[in-house]
Amino acid sequence: MAIDAPAARPANPRFSSGPCTKIPGFSLDMLNDAPLGRSHRATIGKAKLKEAIETTREILGVPADYRIGIVPASDTGAVEMALWSLLGARKATMCAWESFGSGWVTDVVKQLKIDAEVKTAEYGDIVDFADVDFNTDVVFTWNGTTSGVRVPNGDAIPADREGLTICDATSAAFAMELPWDKLDVTTFSWQKVLGGEGGHGVLILSPRAVERLENYAPAWPLPKIFRMTKGGKLIEGIFKGETINTPSMLCVEDYLVSLNWAKSVGGLKGLVERANANAKAVWDFCDARDWIANLANDPATASTTSVCVKFTDDRIKDGAAFAKAVAKRLEAEGVGLDLGAYRDAPAGLRIWCGSTVEEADVEALLPWIEYAFEAEIAAQA
Ligand SMILES: Cc1ncc(COP(=O)(O)O)c(C=O)c1O
User: 18, 122, 160, 196: most buried by Cβ count inside 10 Å?
Assistant: First the structure.
């Protein structure tokens, strides 16, 4: 039975999983301090890039002996730079449980043609890390953005591993705790949890990853954009803000503004709590209803950023068309933008609950999902 439209609306209807909603209260005036029209190699440009690196370190709690670099081509650029530069020295294990992880499998198996064991799980589950050989180089995604499933913690990764761990953490960094001692390569992009802009990636390297870079040269050619060493030595400048090529100083300023906001909400702890509260609001909503469920099968691995939900009502005739219609209705009402599940994922909705999202907006969205669900059930009949 169709129900009345809720009285309240989210003040901010942006729930996209990337680019994610900007920090609360964002306005373009906040970017007035960007050194536009100046060289990124001028003192001011370099200072901004260095500040971005050091504030990232401070908020994420990255150890002092890990390198942090700002690299081109967003998270994809950072991940592929790592895969092309580091893999091939030993066997690899590729872990994938959604489409981005599957993309890294394609890179390694089909493009680089590396000897790799591929471990996969269906949407809603993750690979069992107890079965992974960490004496191989292991590539995995911390949070599967398109499946709403994450690695719960780093406990299964041994401290004395011989291989490197390469972790795509783009939808986790700044919303989830990351165990730095268990991660040799970590990547993310600005457009995700902090609501920054597209185009720029961050690559974080442990001392063991640097050691590999300095002692191993892959058999394949590396484009300039991927090259992190010269004459067998790490190009240290990259990790001090001397970027390989030209970054957008407007995007750098925007990232700095986001980082300052992150500090103002209590740093990493505050950011994690914000995402947790947002996700819990969705989980509680699903638990209290029998027509909607989390796509994540095990609550321990349920994402707190990209929360994916599926409709489980027997009356639904065509699952994919139904979910699309619900998302379309929410968008048309102006209460929830970009909520459709990822194109390769099971039908449903994906509600971004990352740190820049306000809990009040999630709370205001949920009754609208019920409203749109009932309206579409009625429309089917
Ligand atoms: C897990 C994961 N990896 C990689 C990407 C690609 O990120 P980018 O577009 O920043 O390169 C995304 C984007 O949504 C993602 O969610």
Answer: 196
pLDDT at 152: 97
Q: Ligand 1: distance of its center to the CA of 111 in Å? A: 19
Q: Counting atoms of ligand 1 from 1, which one is nearest the CA of 79?
A: 4
Confidence grade of residue 2 (pLDDT, cut at 50, 70, 90): confident
Q: 209-220: buried (b, 16+ CB within 10 Å) or exposed (e) per residue?
A: bbebbeeeebee
pLDDT over 80 at 340, yes or no: yes
| Residue 57: partners with Cβ closer than 8 Å, 6 or more residues away | 64, 66, 68
10 Å CB burial of residue 97 (0-12, 13-18, 19+) is buried
Which two tokens mark 69?
């670099």
Q: Which 3 state secondary structure label does DSSP give 48?
A: helix
Using the CB atoms, write b or e for 343-376: b if 16+ within 10 Å.
eebbbbbbbbbbbbbbbebbbbbbbbbebbbbbb
Nearest one of 108, 220, 103, 86 to 164, comparing CA atoms: 86
CA dihedral 224, 118, 201, 144 (to 10 degrees): 170
Q: Whose CA is nearest to atom 3 of ligand 1?
A: 100
Residue 201 alpha carbon, nearest atom of ligand 1? 10
343 pLDDT tier (thresholds 50, 70, 90): confident
CA dist., res. 293 & res. 283, Å (int): 8
Instruction: For residue 197, report the phi and psi dihedrals to the nearest 5 degrees.
Output: -100, 160
61: left (phi over 0), alpha (psi -120 to 50) or beta: left
Phi, psi of 92 (to 5 degrees): -115, 155
pTM for this entry: 0.98
